[in-house]
Structures are given as C-alpha cells and as structure tokens.
Amino acid sequence: MSRIVRYIYLLTLVSFLFACGGNDNQNSESERSSNIDSNGGGEQPYSYWSETAVRKILHTFAYGGQATDTQIRSWANMEPRAAIQQMLTFEENNPLLSPPDNLALLQGGTLSYLQEYWGGFLESNPTRSERRYIYATLYEDQLTQEKYLSPVTLQHTWTASINRRGLNPFRQKVGLFLTNYHMAVSVHKVRPTMIRSMYDDIMEALEAGIPFHEVLAIGATSAAVAMQYGHQYNRYNNLSSRFYGNDDFAREFHQLFFRILGEDYSLDYHENTTIEHTAWALTGMGIDRDPLAWGGSARPFDYWTDIIDFTDHVDAEGRTLNNFTNHHVNSVEILGADIRGNTAKEKIEALAQVAINERESLDSMPVFIINFFADDNLNDEKIAEIRTLWRSIEPKNLLTFLQEYAISPTFHREDTFKYRTAFSRNLALFNLNTVDDEEAYHNSWTPLWTINEQGALPFSPAHDVFGGQTSINAANNPDIFKSAYNTAVDNPWSVIKYFESYPAGSADTWEKDWARVIPANNFGKYRVKEVGEWLWQRFVADGLKNYGPIERAYVTAFLATGNDFGMIVDPDNPDASFTPEQLASEPYRSIIDANEAATIDLKNSETIPHRIANRYVGMAINFISMTPFMFAMEGR
Amino acid sequence: MNRRDFLKLTLYSTAATTLGNPFMQALAAHGSPHRTLVNVMCLGGADFRYMFAPPPSDTEYANKYWQARQPLYSGYADYNSAFGSLYTAHNAGDLSFGIHNNAGWLKTQYEAGNVAIICNVAGSTNRRHDQSQLIVNSGDLNANQFVYDRDGWGGRLAEAIGEANTVAMTHDVSVFCKGTQAANRNAQVIHVRDSRSFALSHGGNPNQEKVARALKNYYASRSQTIQDKPDNWPYHKFFQHEQKLRAFGDPFKALIEQPENTLPIDIVKLNDPGSMGVLNQRGFAKQCANVYDSLTGADLFKLRVASMEYGGWDTHRNQKNQFENNISDIFGTLRGLDMLTSNLAPEVWNNLVFVFTTDFGRQLKANGDSGTDHGSGNYMILVGPAVNGGVYGEISAAGGPAPYDVQGADILGRTSFERVLAKACDWVEPSSGVQVFPNMAYSDLAQFPDGPILEDGVDLSTLLS
Questions:
Q1: What element of type H or E holds A360?
Q2: Per-residue model confidence (pLDDT) at position A35
Q3: What is the mean pLDDT of residues B371-385?
C-alpha cells in the first residue's frame, strides 16, 4: 500500500472509529465500570476472554500498547478472533492499538521513514527541533560538524517508535524479535543503516503476508547478515573446486534461523555435508559500497550499502565484485535435498523452503517464538499445542500464528508466566505512563539508557548472534532488580514527571494530565480507591489478582497523601512492616479507609494543585513499577 | 540516611578497622584466605592452541601446525619470522613450545611453575555455541539444550562446600553459578556486577527516602505472605533478590568504602579510557575490580567460587587480531589478571586458582577467512600458585593427520573436561569433585570403560597441591 493511500485509509478508519465513540477523552467518565474485569455481557466463546485477557495480550505482545480503555473494553466484548485481528497487525500504523490525538500523526512506520521524518526538517515533524538530531540517520558531531552513521540514533528511533502514538508497538516488538533475537545482528559489527534496511525489509514482507520461510530468506540474504558473519567474503573457485571462507553462518542459518540442529541426520552428515554445502551456497555475496550512501557520511566504514547485487558488477565506489563468478555454480545437497540456484539468493530461497518443513524446525521454531514472547513455563502439553498450531498453518505465517496463540487457552492459563526483560518492563512502563501526543512526541526522555543500564540495548544483542537479553537472564539477575530499584528511589523523574518546559527554562510548558485517561466516577471525582485499582490494572494487568491489602495500603497512601504508608501510620517509626491481618485491624484499617475515600484533584484548574495531584499519581506508579508484579506476568 | 542505618554503617566500619598492624590490615583488606576458584569462561570457543604455538622446526607437529595455520600468520615472510615476532620459546626436556608475547603475565606465571596446560581436553558433544556453553557451564554432558534455568558446576561446588557462595562478577548470572534448588537457584549466589554500586539505595533527600522506605517496608511486609506460594511462583525471584541485596549491600558498601580498601589505581586504570592501561574490553576491567573488592569482602560473602567471563573468541575471521587483543586483556603484562593478582596479599593469591573454560576448541586447519571454525579438542589452562605447572598430555593435536589437512576435521578430545574441573573442585574442597561432577564416580576406566576419558599417560592427581 502506498504511503498516501495508507494515510487516506487510516484517516477514514480512525474518523469512523472516533465517530463510533472509540475515544476515551469523550467517554471515560460515563463508561467507567465498577467491575474492572467485566466481559460486558457479550457472548464469549472463550470463557477466559475478558478485559484482563485483552490487557495481558497487549502487555505481552505490544509493550502494553496505547489503546484506550474504551477500545480495550470493546475488544473484550468482541469475538476473540475478530478482536485479535484488530489488536495485532503488521501494518505500519495501528490506530486502534496506538491512537493519536492528532490524526496527522498517522504516517509511515518504517524505521527508515521515521529516522528521516523525525530527524528531518519538515514543518509537520512533531519532534521538538532541538531533539531531532538524536533520530537523524546521519549524526552530526556538535564540535567538528562531521557527519557519520551512529547506532545511537537508530536505537533512539526504535525506542521512540514503541511509544509514539499513531504507530504500531506490536510491529516493532516483532521487528526487535526478528533482528535482535531470531536473526540477530549487532551494531558492533554491522552499520546501523544496514540493520535498519534488514528490519524494514523483513517487516514489509510480514506486512505483505508472505510465507515465513521467505521472510527468513530475506534476512538470510541481507547485507546485514552477510557482514555480521563475514560471508560477504566467501567465494568458491569453480575451476579448482576450492572454497574460501568460513562456515559461521552456514551453521547458524540452520541453528538460529530455522532451529535445525541436525539431530535427524548423522553428526558427520550435518557437519560435513549440510553445513559445508550451505557455506558453498553462501558464496558470491559481496556487498556494494557507495561513498554517497546514506546521505554522505564522512567515514569510509559507512560506505557499506544494504545492497548485494548477485551479478558480476562494479559498485558505486568502483570496486569489481564477482558475485556471480564467485558463487558455487552447481547444485548442493543440504538437508538431504538437492538445492539449486544460480546465485546465493536463489539457493538460499530454495533452501528456506526445505528447511521450514524439516521436523526439527517444525518442532522447535514455534516453541522458540512463543518462549520469546509469552511463556517461560512451557510444559509438554503446552509445547504440543504450540507445535500443533504451527503445523496447522500452511504456508507458515507468523501473524496468524501469533494471533491464534494469543487468543488460545494455551496462553491464557494459570501456569503460563513470562518474566519481563529490561525491554518489556521499561517500555510497558513508558507506554502506559504516557497520556497524550504531546508527551509522546515532545518528551525529552526515553528509557533507552535505563534499558541499557539494565543490560539490554536494541540492535546490540547481549549475546551477539544468539540474541538479546532473555527474560530468564533478566529475572535471574539481581543487578537488574537493583538498578530498577535504585532508579525508582533516586531518579524517578521520568515516571513521576508532571510538567516539563521546553526548551528547558522556557515558559512553554507541558503539563501532565492524568485526567485525560483516568476515568472519574459517576460524581466526576477521582476517588483514591478507584484510581489505585485503575492504575494497578493498567500497569500490572492482572485483574487485581495481586493487588492485595499490602499493595493497597502503599499505593493509596501515595495517591492520597504523597507519602509512604509507614510515615502516615507512625512518623516516629516509619520503618514498620505490616501483616495483612494488622492492616485489617485498627488503627490501620481506618487509615487505609480514609486514604481510599480521599479524592485526587486531577481536574483542578490551578497549576500547583493540578501538578501535586499528578505528582501523587506518578508516585503511586513509581511504587507499582517496583513491586514484583511488574517484573513478570502470569497468563491468567 | 536514617539514624538506624547510620548506626549500622558505623558498626561495620568499626569492625573493619579494628585490626591493628599492617600485616593484619592486609589480610583484613582481602578477608581470610580460603581456597577460592575463579572460573573465567571464554565465550565463543577460544582457540587456546594459538597461544601456545610450536617453534617451526623439524618436528612433525610443528611443520604440520604451521602449514595448517599459515593463513593466520599471512603478514609474515615465513614461519620463523612469525614465531620470532609473536612467541617466546620454552623448552622443557623434549618439549618445546612458544607462549604468545601478548600473554606476558601468563608467561611469567608459567616460568614460576604456576600454569598447567592440559592438552586435548573436550567437553561439549557438538559444535554449537549455545549448547556447548550450557554443557561447559553446567558441567553436564547431557544438559538439555532448551533448559537454562538449571544448576551449574560452580553452584554445585558452593553447595558441596556448604557455607559458601559463588560470586558472579559478570553482567548476567551464568548457569555456572546456579544451585540445585529449583525454587531459588541463586540461594548461594551473590551477583556483583559493579562492586562500587552494589547496595539498594536509601535515597538522599526526603522524597527519595519516602520511596526507599516504602519499598523496603513493602518487601519486608509482603515477603511474610508468600510462604505458601508454590516453588515456581514467578515472583519469588524478586523477593529473593531484594532480600539478598538487603542483607549484603550495606555491609559490603561499608567495608569497601574504608580508606584502606580503596581500589588500587592499577586496577582503576584498566577501566579508564584515558589511561594507557585501559583494556580493550572494559567490561573485563570491571570484573577485575569486582573480584578485587569481593576478595576484600570474602568473609562477608563467604566467597569460595567466582565467575568471570570474556567474550569475543568466535574467531572465524581475522583470528590473529581478535585473539591477540583478547589475550592481551586477560594475560598481558600489566593487564587484567596481572594487575588484579599483583595487588592481592600473598596469602590471598596463594589461595586462588584461575580456571579457563570455553565452548569448545577450534579446528586446527585455518579456514579461508584468516580464522578457524568450530572444533572440539582444546587446551585447558589453570593458573595459580597452587597449580603444579607444566604440560599434561600430548601437546600436538590428537586425531591423526586429518585435523592438519582437512577443513572440518576435529582435534579429538582425549581428556574429559570433568577430569580437570573435578580436580580443581577437590582442591577447593576435598572430595567435592565427585559431588560436582557425578560422572567422576566412574573415573576408574579399568572398571568403567565408558567413564570420563583420560589421555593415556596423563596423571592429574598432582595437578594442584
């Protein structure tokens, strides 16, 4: 779909949806439900399908998303398959999952487009002018004015793309999975623009709905992967029948891209036929260079393009590349199949079609995917169901697989749980703590460096080609917990922020306004009890399952007073701890009741009281974010 | 800081400074010396054979080595000039080999009799990084390739010792460190990713203190309510982290902030980008600092096992540059381990043994990309004053002519990694080797021919003393 057609389509769609009442700003007060987990009375073929189930999907697959409460309730009331087809899409923009206040923000969503748009100087660019340089493809050194490619601008762009309304955080999470875990490449070895092209090409293919093995073949024949593994220099002398190169990617093509370890073959066959011949297939993949690539970097290392031209040719730098001549001309035997093709691209495409149907791939690939997205507690029963689902989809389609799994009982089980990585915890917190376009687009802060401090960074996978930080890594790492804890204590501004002047010190001030999204009750008030529950459900999404008396005491204390519960109870002994039994008895019960009955002045038109009210909400969120229940999520 | 925390810190400080004379201070600065094993996992499959090349000569091994590896030394006119530029020869009886000049500290330690090179060691059953690392870290040849939430040989060693912990100096806590308790694999693990920022914050102003107090009291309150939760309740881990950090953070902070426990400038420089001594991988410099500080807090931590890592050994391309940078960081004169160990009190250093493990060996024959591809048999290196230095086993490559001539052929493993590591465990804690590596119960090959293999003529009984 062209960008203009897409834009018109999206405008029409969103206008229709808004006309139907899909905007919380208009409806939040009247539609507040006393039962936060209500199904809304619709006929549900899936007994577990509920608002909480919808929220869990959004947390699991879209970093929480930015859908309105009204939209979430609407999905909860729909037939699950119809709902999931709206929730999880590969379109560049998903205005239901990420609705902007300003429909003009529904523009392209490729990383290339976003870097050009946010880092450029179009009048319509919603990014603050003094912040545009952090997104630009070419980073300009402030001292030397030297322009060069910077990994950081790509990393900022991806991080912001999760949060900026009008885009599609699910698409970006899948993009991260495919380029940082499944087919991982790293900015330590590959130019960021090459990774960006691989990312965009893969996502475009997914959006077009092409079979998954073809998507993997696009990654496998990309310039980024050729540089990452070094097979850009592999060549085969067809006269002497000698191979020159390494077998690194020949092994990982099978192991990582298709999850084939060779267990259905002898070790000798796998090592000396499948892998060796794959290395031969991966010959003639020299990458073009162009001094003017990417806008003209001053650094020769940036001349590498994203182009592999499989012919014999001269590139824009004047280098002769014999990609056709250097390719192994004959067919090769791999995985017991005769793989033919005149170029590496043709052979890899043919091989991908064989590999996707290998027994090991059919068994392991879907399990690996679900383990990444949704479940750290897979058992034999769940694995069998996941494999059955994958095998039932022909040709293999990643979107169909994820959609079907997301609404399946295999996911919505009590014994399903997923630990959050530094990505998933911080980005969900970032998304759900953003309340309007202005905050999303003008915010001076993204959690990129917080994520980095906690051991993860986009396009810089912690385990190189074996992928980024896993959820098990994150959960077992006390230092990540400590880092998050100390950030919440010492530097909580990003969460608690209730105003920002930009540029710093100017009178042009953005004010946080939680009233835009927190529903008032039937009396137009923001009662602490209801706000606390609403916040817990928004950030933890567990149907209040873990919002017990202790959580309630601390969250409502911050909301009602901006102080910690221990200090309210006894200023002379603020370090006391409490059992649920104590909290149910006096004097604690009365204190909690009073806090819960208090109201928060989120609608106050005076600046100071309005800021204080929003600050209290931020303090409660900051506290919620550090409970164990923001470090993992259960399936039900 | 509130009054109670201030008093606690004062108490820790007093305890740390009441040891009077300089000798005792040196001991205090590094805790009581207990035998301690430091596992340095070299991620990616380190080609340790490159570090110990034979001098070009008439020996069959040397000739074949240099022919097979010529592409790795392509910048030199001939083999002799390559060897002369890169290695220093060591002769021990009939045995002659070179140690790479970038490993100056290792060379010194070898000359002091503190380095054991065990030849043709193999662990992994395959050439896959992830599964091989899992096998080596877990110390289990049958490790399920999909299960990473499991115990490792370092964790089992700490359990065999009893009152002991494994201290992870690394970014993540590797499988090596983890224990056998499924509900809490970190029960005997302390994670010191940054020894100078290890504790939970108490906040520095009233607003920060509110949050710190709320979280501290919340966790104290809530942890009393989770006793009946099943072992696999996903949130246990975070309560466990909080409790461990709470228990060790402040005392450790108080200890290492004592003036006598300042990090030596030599170690600071390893991680200082403005210093000549800065390492190529500053993460390893940080780990060296973490080891130094953790040894200072060895009594508090009950440190007996430590975990370090160094990545970047997957040298399919340009092996020479990459490998030489790596060994310079770890083994170089005035570099990582040199700076670390030379700043330790003798009693502490005498009780340390470094073990270097890696995914797998690499093929002997160079590939067509100035590198080497995945293989099997490798050298394993142990360093420390307790090590009885020397070469254990046949220094040439096992497996006949194929490893020299055929790309894709393995150097065979003739000694199981369990044999070597179990000996290291036994040194740390007598009789622990068989607990940590249960296959060692079948080590008598006469009785159990399928037990852990051992190269003919090799005796590891005196590897450490």
A1: helix A359-373
A2: 35
A3: 96
In a domain, residue A518? The reply is yes
Query: Which residue, among B107, B86, B115, has the nearest Cα to B324 in the 3D structure?
Result: B86
**Partners of B41 in the β-ladder:** B309, B357
Residues of B in contact with A255 (CB under 8 A): 128
Give A14's pLDDT tier (boundaries 50, 70, 90).
Answer: very low
B221 contacts A248? CB cut-off 8 A: no
Q: Which range marks the domain in which residue B45 is found?
A: 31-196+263-442
DSSP assignment string, B332-376: STTSHHHHHHHTS-HHHHTTEEEEEEES--B-SS--TTSS--B-S
Q: Single out the residue of A634, A418, A433 nearest to residue A545, CA to CA.
A: A634
DSSP-derived secondary structure letter, B198: -
Candidate from B201, B244, B374 with C-beta closest to A490: B201
Final residue of a domain: which of A341, A357, A375? A341
**Is residue A610 in a domain?**
yes
3-state secondary structure of A402: helix
Other Cβ atoms within 10 Å of A404 Cβ, number: 19
The number of folded domains in chain A is: 3
How far is residue B57 from each of residues A233, B64, B66, B67, B120, measured CA to CA in Å?
33, 10, 10, 12, 22
Q: Rounded to whole angstroms, how far apart are CA atoms A315 and A174?
A: 33
Q: A interface mutation test: which of B2, B235, B252 has the most A CBs within 10 A? A: B235
B203 contacts on A by Cβ (under 8 Å): 489-490
pTM for this model (two decimals) = 0.92
Q: Does A622 touch chain B (CB under 8 A)?
A: yes
Residue A199 lies in a domain: no
Residue B350 domain-assigned (yes or no)? yes
B324: left (phi over 0), alpha (psi -120 to 50) or beta: alpha
Output the pLDDT for position A219: 98
In a domain, B14, yes or no: no
Task: Point out the residue among A230, A377, A473 whose CB comes nearest to the CB of B316.
Answer: A230
Across chain B, what does the average pLDDT equal?
92
Distance separating alpha carbons of residues B186 and B406, to the nearest angstrom: 44
User: ∠ CA B91-B97-B100 to the nearest 5 degrees?
Assistant: 120
Q: What is the complex's ipTM, to 2 decimals? A: 0.92
Q: B27 is written with which tokens?
A: 């001991």
Beta bridge partners, B390, equal B116
Q: Does A628 touch chain B (CB under 8 A)?
A: yes
* Contact yes or no for B237 and A476 at CB 8 A: yes
Alpha helices in B115-176 (DSSP H): 129-138, 153-161
- A433, A378, A454, A372: which is closest to A60 by C-alpha? A372
Angle A588-B212-A471 from CA coordinates, rounded to 5°: 110
State how far the alpha carbon of A385 is from the alpha carbons of A391, A420, B269, in Å: 10, 23, 55
pLDDT digits (tens, 9 = 90+) for B309-331: 999 999 999 999 999 999 999 99
- CB contact under 8 Å between A477 and B173, yes or no, is yes
Q: Flag if B234 and A475 touch (Cβ within 8 Å).
A: yes
Q: Specify whether the CB–CB gap between B306 and B36 falls below 8 A.
A: yes
Q: Could you give the number of structural domains in chain B?
A: 1
The answer to the question of residue B289 being in a domain is yes
Q: For B225, which of A580, A622, A632 is closest by C-beta distance?
A: A580
Which residue range is the domain that position A294 belongs to? 232-246+260-341
Q: Which residues contact B410 (CB under 8 A, 6 or more apart)?
A: B361, B363, B375, B376, B377, B399, B403
* Spatial separation of the C-alpha atoms in residues A232 and A485, rounded to whole Å: 44
For A264, A335, A351, B129, B145, the CA distances from A269, given in Å and listed in that order, are: 10, 9, 16, 19, 20
